[in-house]
Amino acid sequence: MFLLSLLVLAVFSTAVFVFARRAARRRAAGVRAHSGPGYHGALALIWAAVPALLILVLVSVFDARVERAVLIASAPEAVQSLDGPRRGAFIEDARIVGAGGMPRQIWTGDLAAALQEEAARAGRVDTALAWGGMIAAVLAALMGAGLAWRRLTPDTRARNRVEAFVAVALFTCSAVAILTTIGIVASLLFESLRFFQMVPITEFLFGTQWSPQIAIRADQVGSTGAFGAVPLFAGTFLIMIIAMIVAGPIGLFSAIYLAEYAGPKRRAVIKPVLEILAGVPTVVYGFFAALTVGPSFRAFFNWIGAQLVGGPLDGLGQHLMLVQNQMALVAGAVMGIMLIPFVSSLSDDIINAVPQSLRDGSYAMGATKSETIKRVVLPAALPGIAGAFLLAVSRAIGETMIVTMAAGLAARTTLNPLETVTTVTVQIVTLLTGDQEFDSAKTLAAFGLGLTLFVVTLILNFAAQRIVQTYREQYD
């Protein structure tokens, strides 16, 4: 019903715009009008569409609450006698059955009969609310169109009013973005403060043991838990470094080729094909890492280990023969492949932004193309390229799916890329998986990790933006 109402409103608003523009053009014939016909049409569209759209949004947001309140207020005695959680579950099942679904619980006795009655009443209430909202939206659209039609005069300052509405709409969008950011930071800070009241921040930032287990009994092993996040940071940065070792050179060299060597035809083919990698979902990269790259790397290192067994490097060979499919190297390599178009596209744009006069001056001095790129173009584009690399680093730090499927869950402080590790984002997902109550250090640890990751990513993004701004100021 909501989509149908939006479709009807869109058709009606378009018709109002067309007729209002024609009427404004006709009434302004031979008279100097303050605003053009298009502004009059836009003003009529705003008057007709905005109030109706607000009504539809309010109905879609609050109809479930109104329906639930109506059902609870007039529920039979058998339902009223239930405690709060069970009564809420019964009403929710009645709404589900009324919408044609299956109840989530089995109700017996009087409650089974009451469920059918309440489901029928829920269907009627839902239909009444939907039709009521649609009728109210239609009336609001008609009233708005009528008021706008009366104002279709040459003296109406339609342009000023339309531009004022656009300014308010843009400000509202900006305010929503700002308030969303504030809400994210506030939620992280509030829950993180609760966590740091249970676990000292020094233990969290500098501890070397991560085992967020909460025991059922006081004498159970691991009853206190360990919340040292150093192993998580070590795994995160190890995978990030491997990813940048893969993505940095390949992405940068690809950008140099596309910007300086490839002709228009090759560039038109290679650049879109390269950027297809950016559109591949991360879970697909995870499948690729788990099913293809991991077994291939394991077979390769096991073969090398078999060649070393019995020789001077026998210990290393035996270690390589124990390599598993999940390791930091697999996750980092696949993540680096994912970041190649990110680095390449940004670096390509930055290299193309270097003024052609610098290249011409280098050629005039007798430098070759490769010398010009190495000694003129890349130094000039270096600040922007550094910013692109930092943005790619922040993207790598926040990746979750590839690491979950390819690196494992072992929290250990190591620099060995052949061992399983875990990252901050993976542990956040692990801690918040399933039904959780936010009153234990184990669950609240996810917010401490999230706040730390947020601060690190924010610093990297800020540094990248400052570097890029400095670059742009230099060559504008």
Mean pLDDT: 82
Widest sheet, order of strands: 1-2
- Using the CA coordinates, give the radius of gyration: 31 Å
The appropriate CATH architecture of the largest domain is: Orthogonal Bundle
Number of helices: 17
CATH topology of the largest domain: MetI-like fold
Number of strands: 2
Number of domains: 3
Overview of the molecule:
This protein has 476 residues and is mainly α. The chain folds into three domains: 2-156, no CATH class; 162-198; 210-475, Orthogonal Bundle (MetI-like fold). The protein is 76% helix and 1% strand. The protein contains 17 helices and two strands. A two-stranded antiparallel ribbon has the order 1-2. Helix 2 (37-73) packs antiparallel against helix 5, helix 13 runs antiparallel to helix 14 and helix 14 (369-397) packs antiparallel against helix 17 (441-475). It is flat.
